[in-house]
Amino acid sequence: MTVVIGFAMVLSGLIHLLPLVGVAEPSRVAGMYDVRVDGPDLAVLLVHRAVLFGLLGALLIAGAWVDDLQPYAIGAGLVSDLAFLAIAKVNPGINAAMQRVVRADVVSVVLLVAAGVSWAVTR
Q1: Domain boundaries along the sequence of the chain
Q2: Comparing C-alpha atoms, which of 1, 18, 5 is closest to residue 116?
Q3: Cα first-last separation, the chain
Q4: Computed over its alpha carbons, how large is the radius of gyration of the chain?
Q5: Distances (CA, A) of 17 to 8, 40, 49, 61
Q6: In angstroms, rounded to a whole number, what is the distance separating the alpha carbons of residues 15 and 108?
Q7: Residue range 100-119: mean pLDDT, rounded
């Protein structure tokens, strides 16, 4: 593992772990996105989203130490981040909290591209 790969994957993993606060309290993750949870349906979706991001964050962090996981973790992180950025791009007018998520995902993409390039060069 190179330092670049490990550093980038851990930082990206930490970014993806942030929504885990929503597993215990959907209102906290709703606050992160500045959305109103009007009923149990949206609460279930937000909690499920938090769990999935927790899994992705754990995979990214594990990939920092398990070389065989690295290409899969980097790929999964990039697909997730780029999908969100594309969805946000075609839906203009998102609130300031969602713009912070966009900025965090841009940081994550830069980190994961650096990790991916470093991984490819070292192979």
Answers
A1: 3-122
A2: 5
A3: 11
A4: 15
A5: 14, 23, 11, 10
A6: 7
A7: 97
Nearest to residue 65, comparing CAs of 121, 13, 103?
A: 13
The helix or strand, by DSSP H or E, that contains position 37, with its residue range, turns out to be none
For the stretch 70-103, pLDDT in tens is 999 999 999 999 999 999 999 989 999 999 999 9
User: For the segment 16-61, what is each residue's pLDDT rounded down to a tens digit?
Assistant: 999 988 788 777 878 888 888 888 898 888 889 999 999 999 999 9
**Three-state DSSP state, 39:** coil
Q: pTM of the prediction?
A: 0.92
Maximum distance among all alpha carbons in the chain? 50
Q: CA 107, 110, 111 angle in degrees (round to 5)?
A: 85
Integer Cα distance of 65 and 57 in angstroms: 13
Whether the CB-CB separation of 10 and 57 falls below 8 Å is answered with: no
